[in-house]
Design goal:
Number of strands: 55
Keywords: Acetylation, Calcium, Cell membrane, Endoplasmic reticulum, Lipid transport, Lipid-binding, Membrane, Metal-binding, Phosphoprotein, Repeat, Transmembrane, Transmembrane helix, Transport
Membrane topology: Peripheral membrane protein; Multi-pass membrane protein
Pfam families: C2 (PF00168), SMP_LBD (PF17047)
Strand content: 35-45%
Low-confidence stretches: 1-43, 500-504, 611-641, 931-975
GO cellular component, one term: endoplasmic reticulum membrane
Shape: elongated
Organism: Pan troglodytes (Chimpanzee)
Oligomer: single chain
Length: 1114
């Protein structure tokens, strides 16, 4: 934590206030400014709050005296009171010490830097300049482990080379049948890891590490071909570079990591000392050539986009996607010009100075492009465009090297490097970059192209590309990634299949694949001696016009002389596929009858949001940039890059699902309760514990029952990460330690793929018992058309023991903020953000000392009432309080396109903005037992018996859902009859046959009668006649001073259907007469004969209220 150069000198001790008066040590209330409009008069609500606080404090002190009073009333000694008080004080002391220790440890783990500063110095003072907290950490402990393992690694390498590599080399060529490794020693100097950097918050499903490795070893490997008396080898080697290690995917089972990917972000430096016959490689000219060839071999194996993937679990899905994931984006590099280059050409032995013949090399990882040569020019203008795929942000760099073309060796003119993360942040960079190692500048225009799965954007991209001048290749509109998996039943190689000049017998083929799009062809590796090869390779293509292009696939024998099968696929098929993905078997033509190829093709549209930038054009030449112009334009300055208009969330954002877990019942549980010292055998008091995705749930306890029925629903947000399991345990509730009644596990792969699971699961580790679970995957839908039906379905299937069911899933991507207020007017804050919806909240990481933090974090929330809930966001500074806040009603998302808002939001403080993406998805249940059909009709008291006929046939019942499928109808209509003189009440009546319950939902009232000066305080009372006892009486909460209250409360009665149809439901709307009186004022009532009510419909209806003397239902 070093002091920035821009800060002024620290104030002298004389200028600083003393410790007692330091305002930073005062509570926040000391800094609060009085309201200028208050006039010094206390506010009414504040005075009421103080009075309530005094009464509460007085009540607590009275509670302390209750044990003393009870002891005196019973006649106990004061010693009992003192003994109890001593026990309480001792317990409180131990409890406070534990909480204090836990708080201190948590504070140390949360922010070691801030705690160190507070511990060593006075608060808010800076540490010395030589104290820092680097993000690259040393790993000496890891080096010690490597040093101890190094000799055993040498033994493994010797065994591997002797038993695996040497036989493979001898079998590859008959001239190498006497090839052997005569010496394999890794030496005594192990590989060292200079530093480790962890990149937090990239993606939830991965851990990303950068290892700065350095190997200066005394390795010695000697080989010999005895037949030719040839000896060669390596003695000593150096390798330096940054190795990126990705642990992905994270899974919910041991070893918690599905695979390890390793690669070099940039080409490492390599130096090899040859021995024996290979000493010839040290000849000048051959030395650089050999090192370059070997470095190219390593780059083709371990430098991006190539990766080394090591699976850690069997049957890992999407191996090809892990080995070759989709790029993060595409950068379009416009190499425009250079100026002020140095002169390298000399004539007449240096007496006459000429100019240079410059050309440029543009490199990103293994992607390299070379410009044309401009003869005799120190200010060349190239005007060329290249497109490169970006795989890792941060990490990869764009490198431009400028050379002077000469007949012998080209002269170096300069180099520039730029991290691709800056292009991602700015979207467009257009500037002159200075050349390092030389003189002059190079003019580049860099554009970040996002990868979209929206085919509707293609026409817009094609139209823009038609006006862009690009050479040597036209601009691309999309990319295609082909994951080549496997083939089946390829034809055998026979003599008849070969041309006459080739004579071969029958054998299994050595298949390889050629993929071509126009004039670009890529080849897979050859798989030997099989007609069912497995490749698991990926290929990437740039597409200029996907609507007219096609991919040609040729499966051939490794000699390329025999075609085993062919396939031509128009890319227009992908444009109509979901998410622009085809993942299937393809039948091969000109092949066997059952020969087919399995591929996954993924297309992504390359989109540059033109609303973020202003594209300069030259009249008569659309899209051409004036390379001589130096006028700054919007989006063309490195010092002040344009800010993006939209977020750049990764492909995993918004892909979560909601798993609805319905714990129904259990059978044949073991009895754990014992009485009278174990002589009398009782039952058990079972409850269920659930664990999934880092969260735990617990059901209620069912007393004295070995076949309990819980009927509770729990919901949890899950991802598609493989290996997740739902852990279920059943316990018997006891006073001391709960007894174990069994456990079971459910693999979520089946549920996530099929969407539904309803099974009895046998409990493990116990003699008997089984548990009935119902699991359903809910996939969010970006449309609000079904929201009302979802809310009503949730109200019908809601159980009394469960929390309110979620109707939607809210996904938030918090990218960045800008222009946050400075701390004390001059210092940058250390901001973090808190996102809150209801009782759930998420806190982002803290970004140290900046007013423009970049978080790149996402969070998800379950939403139960999208119409009324809101997202509350606060940006706070570490130790400085609130920097700004934002309240986003979710009702704004319901009217947005695709239920998504992606833009900048201004904070309420008036200073600062945040860039976030809020996306809402409606959770539609397909297995709720209620089938939704939109149907509207009106209903009044005069037309209750004349119920309109429902459209369509009988309810559709599927075999996969054994529960009763009912109709859900909507009755809100503009044609509804007006309310009666006493008002109306809205009810839903439904008989849940599976649970054997009568369900009533009181939605609300409207147009109630007002008898006095003030509106009533209404509530609804329900009574199931003819019983008038408390067992059948239900009542809603009370609403204050309203004629149209909304309740939305659910009530249940357990009784058979035939008994329910013999009952009448008495519904009374009442109001409290006064605060001191127990008298209730009847506002109106209605009596419903359940025998005349269709309890299978689950319909919400308005009923007219009547006086108490009226009879019948309305």
């Amino acid at each position: 934590m070093e002091r920035s150069p821009g800060e002024g000198p620290s104030p002298s001790p004389m200028d600083q206030p003393s410790a007692p008066s330091d305002p930073t040590d005062q509570p926040p209330a000391a800094h609060a400014k009085p309201d200028p409009g208050s006039g010094g008069q206390p506010a009414g609500p504040g005075a009421a709050g103080e009075a309530l606080a005094v009464l509460t404090s007085f009540g607590r002190r009275l509670l302390v005296l209750i044990p003393v009073y009870l002891a005196g009333a019973v006649g106990l000694s004061v010693g009992f009171v003192l003994f109890g008080l001593a026990l309480y004080l001792g317990w409180r002391r131990v409890r406070d010490e534990k909480e204090r220790s836990l708080r201190a440890a948590r504070q140390l783990l949360d922010d070691e830097e801030q705690l160190t500063a507070k511990t060593l110095y006075m608060s808010h003072r800076e540490l010395p300049a030589w104290v820092s907290f680097p993000d690259v950490e040393k790993a000496e402990w890891l080096n010690k482990i490597v040093a101890q393992v190094w000799p055993f690694l040498g033994q493994y390498m010797e065994k591997l080379l002797a038993e695996t590599v040497a036989p493979a080399v001898r079998g590859s060529n008959p001239h190498l049948q006497t090839f052997t490794f005569t010496r394999v020693e890794l030496g005594e100097k192990p590989l060292r890891i200079i530093g480790v950097k962890v990149h937090p918050g990239q993606r939830k499903e991965q851990i990303l590490l950068d290892l700065n490795i350095s190997y200066v070893g005394d390795v010695q490997i000697d080989v010999e071909v005895k037949k030719y008396f040839c000896k060669a080898g390596v003695k000593g080697m150096q390798l330096h570079g940054v190795l990126r290690v990705i642990l992905e995917p994270l899974i919910g089972d041991l070893p918690f990591v599905g695979a390890v990917s390793m690669f070099f972000i940039r080409r490492p430096t390599l130096d090899i000392n040859w021995t024996g016959m290979t000493n010839l490689l040290d000849i000048p000219g051959l030395s650089s050539l050999s090192d370059t060839m070997i470095m190219d071999s390593i780059a083709a194996f371990l430098v991006l986009p190539n990766r080394l993937l090591v699976p850690l679990v069997p049957d890992l899905q999407d191996v090809a996607q892990l080995r070759s994931p989709l790029p993060r984006g595409i950068i379009r590099i416009h190499l425009l010009a250079a100026r002020g280059l140095s002169s390298k050409d000399k004539y007449v032995k240096g007496l006459i100075e000429g100019k240079s013949d410059p050309y440029a090399l543009v490199r990103l990882g293994t992607q390299t492009f070379c410009s044309r040569v401009i003869d005799e020019e120190l200010n060349p203008q190239w005007g060329e465009t290249y497109e490169v795929m970006v795989h890792e942000v941060p990490g990869q760099e764009i490198e431009v090297e400028v050379f002077d073309k000469d007949p012998d060796k080209d002269d170096f003119l300069g180099r520039m490097k730029l991290d691709v993360g800056k292009v991602l942040q700015a979207s467009v960079l257009d500037d002159w970059f200075p050349l390092q190692g030389g003189q002059g500048q190079v003019h580049l225009r860099l554009e970040w192209l996002s990868l979209l799965s929206d085919a509707e954007k293609l026409e817009q991209v094609l139209q823009w590309n038609r006006g862009v001048s690009s050479r040597p290749e036209p601009p691309s509109a999309a990319i295609l990634v082909v994951y080549l998996d496997r083939a089946q039943d390829l034809p055998m190689v026979t003599s008849e299949l070969y041309p006459p000049q080739l004579k071969k017998g029958n054998k299994e083929p050595n298949p390889m694949v050629q993929l071509s799009i126009q004039d670009v062809t890529q080849e897979s590796k050859a798989v030997y001696s099989t007609n069912c090869p497995v490749w698991e390779e990926a290929f990437r293509f740039f597409l200029q016009d996907p609507q007219s292009q096609e991919v040609d696939v040729q499966v051939k024998d490794d000699s390329r002389a025999l075609t085993l099968g062919a396939l031509t696929l128009p890319l227009a098929r992908l444009l109509t596929a979901p998410e622009l993905i085809l993942d299937q078997w393809f039948q091969l033509s000109s092949s066997g009858p059952n020969s087919r190829l399995y591929m996954k093709l993924v297309m992504r549209i390359l989109y540059l949001d033109s609303s973020e930038i202003c594209f300069p054009t030259v009249p008569g030449c659309p899209g051409a940039w004036d390379v001589d112009s130096e006028n700054p334009q919007r989006g063309s300055s490195v010092d002040a890059p344009p800010r993006p208009c939209h977020t750049t969330a990764d492909s995993q954002f918004g892909t979560e699902h909601v798993l609805r877990i319905h714990v129904l019942e259990a059978q044949d549980l073991i009895a754990k309760d014992r009485f009278l010292g174990g002589l009398v055998k009782g039952k058990s008091d079972p409850y269920v514990k659930l664990k999934l995705a880092g969260r735990s749930f617990r059901s209620h306890v069912v007393r004295e029952d070995l076949n309990p029925r819980w009927n509770e629903v729990f919901e949890v947000i899950v991802t598609s990460v493989p290996g997740q399991e739902l852990e279920v345990e059943v316990f018997d509730k006891d006073l001391d330690k709960d007894d174990f009644l069994g456990r079971c596990k459910v693999h979520l792969t089946t549920v996530l793929n099929s969407g539904f699971l309803d099974e009895w699961l046998t409990l493990e580790d116990v003699p008997s018992g089984r548990l009935h679970l119902r699991l359903e995957r809910l996939t969010p839908r970006p449309t609000a058309a079904e929201l009302e039906e979802v809310l009503q379905v949730n109200s019908l299937i809601q159980t009394q023991k469960s929390a309110e069911l979620a109707a939607a899933l809210l996904s938030i991507y918090m990218e960045r903020a800008e222009d946050l207020p400075l701390r004390k007017g001059t210092k940058h804050p250390s901001p973090y953000a808190t996102l809150t919806v209801g009782d759930s909240s998420h806190k982002t990481k803290t970004i140290s000392q900046t007013s423009a933090p970049v978080w790149d974090e996402s969070a998800s929330f379950l939403i139960r009432k999208p119409h009324t809930e809101s997202l509350e966001l606060q940006v706070r500074g570490e130790g400085t309080g609130v920097l700004g806040s934002l309240s986003l009603p979710l009702s704004e998302l319901l009217v947005a396109d695709q239920l998504c808002l992606d833009r900048w939001f201004t904070l309420s403080s008036g200073q600062g903005q945040v860039l976030l993406r809020a996306q809402l998805g409606i959770l539609v249940s397909q297995h709720s037992g209620v089938e939704a059909h939109s149907h509207s009709y009106s209903h009044s008291s005069s037309s209750l018996s004349e119920e309109p006929e429902l459209s369509g046939g009988p309810p559709h019942i599927t075999s996969s859902a054994p529960e009763l499928r009912q109709r859900l109808t909507h009755v809100d209509s503009p044609l509804e009859a007006p309310a009666g003189p006493l008002g109306q009440v809205k009810l839903t009546l439904w008989y849940y046959s599976e649970e054997r319950k009568l369900v009533s939902i009181v939605h609300g009232c409207r147009s109630l009668r007002q008898n006095g000066r003030d509106p009533p305080d209404p509530y609804v009372s329900l009574l199931l006649l003819p019983d008038k006892n408390r067992g059948t009486k239900r009542r809603t909460s009370q609403k204050k001073r309203t004629l149209s209250p909304e309740f939305n409360e659910r009530f249940e009665w357990e009784l058979p259907l035939d008994e329910a149809q013999r009952r009448k439901l008495d519904v009374s709307v009442k109001s409290n007469s006064s605060f001191m009186s127990r008298e209730r004022e009847l506002l109106g009532k209605v009596q419903l004969d359940l025998a005349e009510t269709d309890l299978s419909q689950g319909v919400a209806r308005w009923y007219d209220l009547m006086d108490d003397k009226d009879k019948g239902s309305s």
